[in-house]
Fold each of these.
Amino acid sequence: MSSPILLCAGGTGGHLFPAEALAHELKSRGFTVHLATDERAGRYAGAFPADAVHVIPSATFGSHNPLKVLKAGRTLWRGYRAAIVLMKELKPAAVVGFGGYPTIPPMMAAVQQRLPTLIHEQNAVMGRANRFLASRVRRIAAGIPQIHPDPALSAKTTVTGNPVRPAVLEAAATPYHASRGTAPFNLVVFGGSQGAQFFSKAVPAAIELMSPELRARLRVTQQARAEDEAQVRAFYETAGIPAEVSPFFSDMAARIGAAHLVVSRSGASTVSEICVIGRPSILVPYPYALDHDQAANAARLTSEDGATLARQSELTPAKLAGFIRDVAEDPSFAETTAQVARSNGIPDAARLLADLVASMPGAAFTR
């Protein structure tokens, strides 16, 4: 049996999507790929190109309640023990983690077994799980240059970019053409796994302030939480605006590709995908992120005028309406913004990361 490359990613899109992109690249090179994840991955991992998926018990320290912290610690310990068994059975050639507490049990098990290990950090500020693992693994890949790099870790860090899925590369093949005159204007709104609730209120409130001419052009795709879905859909139906509203879109890359403007949070994968596809965006960093990583992710792009940065605390309906109007009514501005965004994209990040994995010292690869 060939030795697989084991990818470890928590069950959210932000962690699984770059792992999925790397898996596609590794599979195209003839490698066997396995995925270690947690029980949340069902919605995202169905199309993951893994030869096998291993569910490892995991938990997140998301509470200050001592009993809940203790329970989380016990779950992580169970996950670590299960991961040790998995490492001994699989004998993976290399183990790659993509951040989040669910990666700690398998990554620590790989370290304990002295296997070649690498972590990929999507954000401009390293997350807590990766900070815990960084000194223990052999190599670090950065999706975005780190805002405050640790000198002790810089020597083993390589900036590869954030791998994007094949669907994103397919969407990137469509050039951006701004909407002109009375032509339809495609607005895509999504909040990721955190923060869609804000947009469910903010975007309809902004649209109410727009001119009848602009409202008549709007075609909207909006992600909304299940509990907000009916209310958001009712708004668009009453306003007579064609809209698709859902808690989840499996074809979001294609929808971004068809967008004239994206309004979204600024998670690392989101920013990377918008850049590779090359679309104007209004980025609203999730204000409750522990490390303010979303603001850091957006900083470089917005400083180069490749996107509009909007702080949630300052984003009134009137401001949001104005930002949307700027793109909808100024095709030259829209196309320039799209070009700057595209210039910041790294479409071959999956190849660069796969090269880094394949060059790891001590890795016994069998294809």
Note: The chain is about 45% helix and 15% strand.
Amino acid sequence: MPHRTMGTIELRGLAAHIRGGVVIQSVDRAVRVLTALQGSRRMALSELAAALGLPASTVHGIVKTLVGHGMVVQERGSSRYMLGPRVLLLGNVYLDTLELRSRTAPWAGELARRTGFAVRTGVLLVDEVVIIHHEPRPDGSRQMPEVGIVIPAHASALGKAIAAFSAEAQKTVGEAAPLRSMTGETLTDLAALEAQWDDTAATGVASEAEEAVLGECALASPIFDAFDGVVGAIAVVVPATAWPVEAPVREALRETARAISRELGAPAWPGPRAV
């Protein structure tokens, strides 16, 4: 499956933040170890050392410390390591502190009922979108929970909706070029993506058709706060068999994003374009 799972807390953004300020070497290395384990799930000390470009003895000391704090555990019956239960605890605390998530939940439920589609709320983290709330389709079918899933911003309607109103997001995505292709439909041409950002800024709605996952399409609208900043986006997830959607679905999405933004104190919707 092309989506990554955040493991309930994304660590790569923290590493980038640390490197952007004063680097505390030991903290930076610990975050790099956690990030490597997030991407590979299970790794031996030698694999971690090779991935990080550090001596095995150094990595061993870092891992031993992380194990002591429950951030890393050794896989039973092997010499490989993986993320520990405290990462889950930190992720849950993070989600519980998000005002956007608590504000979105009731509106997402109503949007799912109005449209018949699943609804996602996401926030941008570096050049990816993290799903912080998931409202399943209201048809009673068995569905996997999606909170914590991570999708490349350029390949998701959520990411496009946010980037259309964030110069920083556009810069970050642009610096990631060449953009990764998730499916044969993924838009990887930066100029074409910029044209979509312009269209989204004008309409308040972004779209993607099977760019991240085959068989899945989406529409998304941005959410703003009291400072006129884009803080996330909300999307309806549409099966390819039901794409394109009718105008009432698009309007219901816009109304929902506008209502959530109003609750967060946004003076207008949509907010100002990225400059």
Note: The domain at 7-91 is CATH 1.10.10.10 (Arc Repressor Mutant, subunit A).
Amino acid sequence: MDFHPGSLLGPVPERVGRLVFLNGTPSSGKTTVAKALQEELAEPFFHHSLDELRGGYQGRYWRQDYGGVLFRRVLDGYLHMLRSLTLLGHDVISEAVITPQMLDHYLALFEGIPVLFVGIRCPLEEVERRERGRPDRMTSAPQLDEPVHTHGCYDLEVDTSVQKPADVAKLIIAALMEPPVVSAFDQLRRGKTGGQPVQADCPRDLNAR
């Protein structure tokens, strides 16, 4: 293997790592699923949420972040961290809230990286109930379900209001073992016309909902 100047270990990794994106609204169950997935996986998968990274700044900075500048910087740093980890051979589980205006950024940044795109769905009433019970919120008000899932394309979809985390984890592991021939991310890239994703011919496991 060739020397990789950006790696302390020297050699280029034998393969690019896999990235599991759990996409859904806040409080839809992404963190619970991520932890259950780590418990079920035999191989090591790295998991670190955006909220954990945000915790590196004191709450007073977030209360002053009226224009969202700090949030965008932290989000960008988080996404580039995920990309760097996978390029160094790490398998990664990540949580995402991919709104329509952010989709292009995700598709471009993670091109060439094997992404399993998992839709984490949960009825809005249940999301709001969970949100009210969370003491760890730096900001309030979950984003609505529809903008997060507007692209309409996933490798796998689940509903955490009716499916147990361990069962969801098993579905994701099965999808990792037999990934789709054309991933949802690649379908979204191929289907983009006039700046909007085409929502047809996309592989999804609708029976998982």
Note: The domain at 19-208 is CATH 3.40.50.300 (Rossmann fold).
Amino acid sequence: MRARLRPLLLLFWLGLVYTVVSLPEHAVSLSETVAAKMEESGISNPVTAVLLNFRGYDTLLELAVLLAALLGVWSLRIASVSRQWNPGQVLDTMSRQLVPVLIVSAGYLLWAGTNAPGGAFQAGSLLGAAGVLLLLCGWRIDNRFIGLPLRLLLASGLGLFVLTGVALAAADGAFLQYPPSVASQLVVVIEAMATLSIGATLAALFMGGRPGEE
């Protein structure tokens, strides 16, 4: 098996060497191009403008990869939601103090992402941390929300992203190319939904399997 992989590894290594050698001596900077198009993005923060507008495909694929990873974990086993946990007084007290702070901080990072460092992935990571802390304290999803509601929440970020792109393509013929007049509103809505789905996905990944009864 190893002998069969050696030619492929050699070709891969040669491709990397060729890529590095063929790089230009002076890298072309796109900062000026981004600065010139900031008004069209509807956002004052260049990082968010690049990730959600100019290179929206990258963020779309990142959400797809995150959801695919969760589906892979869910396909392996079922995580019980009825197991009893005894977190202890220290962890229980800490969770009661930290979870509200994490939720408020996530909301701030989401809102600040339009004109300062922040955005959906940072805010979603904080929500995911809050979910992990709750799971460590024994909190589990109610049976009423295990099925379709949970799946809709997990897929909402990617789904809204795709639906927005399809609607824009049908209206203007360009996928994920936001009209300047509504770009800011669309980005905020997409980021808000992506924050919720990212946080839920990270917490669900920590659970280690598809939630279900024993």
Note: The mean pLDDT is 81.
